[in-house]
Amino acid sequence: MKKAIIVYESLYGNTKRVAQAIKDGMEKVGNVECSIKKTSEIHTNDLLRYDAILFGGPNHNQEPARNILRFIDRATIVDLNGKIGAAFDTYTGGNIGIAVAKLETIIREKLSGMELVANGFSALVEDRRGPLANEEIPRATEFGALVGRKLLI
Ligand SMILES: Cc1cc2nc3c(=O)[nH]c(=O)nc-3n(C[C@H](O)[C@H](O)[C@H](O)COP(=O)(O)O)c2cc1C
What we know:
By secondary structure, this protein is α/β, with parallel strands linked by helices. The chain has one domain (2-151): Rossmann fold. The protein has helices spanning 14-28, 66-75, 98-110, 136-151, and strands at residues 2-8, 32-38, 52-60, 63-64, 84-91, 115-116, 121-124. Strands 1, 2, 3, 4, 5, 6 and 7 form a seven-stranded mixed beta sheet that branches. α1 (14-28) packs across α4 (136-151). Residues 10-15, 58-62, 90-93, 95, 125, 128, 130 line the site of flavin mononucleotide.
């Protein structure tokens, strides 16, 4: 059994819903067990227990939410060599992919032992507080399945 964790930040719950859909997709491929933790709920040392680590957060002013960036800063002292990863964001309006691209750049710079195995996923919320746009939950599940399959290779 491979173990994965999704570390996320979420102000209004939309990114948390995306994390849950990604978890469902990962577990659907079989032989993957996925946990979900908000940044405040997990110590960086606990990352050592997992084969795959996913990071996600909302776009706040064209950047990944501050708490997810702080978590990655704290994780730099942990040896994540050989682990696989992926990233996702949620956004409003025309800002698809902007925060997740920055998140991926930061992961590559700061957690360089990790390999990102899928292009970052970006989910639209219709207004600042939500709800998630139609189709984003099945898209998130599909993204999870993609990462899950990479984990089993
Ligand atoms: C302070 C703040 C700044 C935001 N700035 C942007 C932005 O620049 N671009 C964007 O697409 N969405 C922006 N948003 C919308 C968030 O992306 C949206 O609230 C978020 O995806 C909802 O996810 P959550 O429910 O997990 O917090 C902003 C939201 C907040 C609260």
